What does this fold into?
Amino acid sequence: MRLEMGHIYIKDIQFAAESKIEDGILYVSEEAVKAVALEDEKIKSVSFDIAKPGESVRITPVKDVIEPRVKVEGRGGIFPGVIAKVDTVGEGKTYALKGMAVVTAGKIVGFQEGIIDMTGPGADYTPFSKTLNLVMVCEPVDGIKQHDYEKAVRFAGFRVAVYLGELARELTPDETKVYETCTIKEGMEKYPNLPRVAYVQMLQSQGLLHDTYVYGVDAKKIVPTIMSPTEIMDGAIVSGNCVAPCDKVTTFHHLHNPVIDECYKRHGKEINFMGVILTNENVFLADKERHSDMVAKLAEWLELDGVLITEEGYGNPDTDLMMNCRKVERKGTKVVLITDEFPGKDGKSQSLADTCDEATALASC
It folds into this structure.
């Protein structure tokens, strides 16, 4: 798949009577974005604010962070199966509003959801202290259940992001980057001497508001599969994770997956980037065994020389991580783990809840 990603840099956000992008400034009609957010009857009210880098502002509790994008050429639309109709995305042209984000907030599970400090010591711990943030705070109707409220806020954020992305449809990007993944045959012919490398992306799927969605499907319901990285850039994966703020993966992170970005930089030079093996993080042992077996099988079928594996969360998912590592290694493919160790305040606690002898290469975050 070949995707042209056009970057439109936003220098400022201002409220105005009309929504538009002009000279790098995003003008937002409060009335228009409120109407978009309130399309769901489960949301009683919504308010918008603008938070800029360096301001004495704390945003909490953060639900999700989303970069506005628009599909200008190719199949489907942004956030397929969620906002756009179900269609395979990842090719053609997509424009993204760079330097800004839509931040959704709402007290779904309280303090656990996350904090963004726009200045001070806390700003060093979040990339979103450096983005221009359009913050939307949603209040639910009375008596609504947490899961229904979470879904309403999640969808409202996507609708607002798509609305803003559409403002860029007729613009000329400030910069364009091209991302392309070869087929298996093409890769073998073009890069016969480069190591064949794939990325195993583990998605949070433990339920109880620890959720991720793939083409609109709850990741708990998927089995391991192969995806083009460009599909992920077009919003095929979105976050529904409300908890674990210290390592929560937002939709913005999925759109900007740093492992995918680094693999593309090295594709055709140091490695033959084969794409993404997508899997989830299961609760029950039988599911962990089944899915790690499938991940190892896909790695073997692709005749991979190496894989990078990331996990979202810690504790229970550490077992999925180590099962994937052990089984892929035993198929003859080298594994490097990228993980967030959690060894307690003094650094002396066990940093991972599980391990295996095959986990010999690990990059700690």
Notes: Helices lie at 30-37, 146-166, 184-190, 229-233, 251-255, 258-266, 285-301, 316-330. Residues 282 and 288 are 6 Å apart (CA to CA). DSSP finds eight helices and 22 strands in the chain.
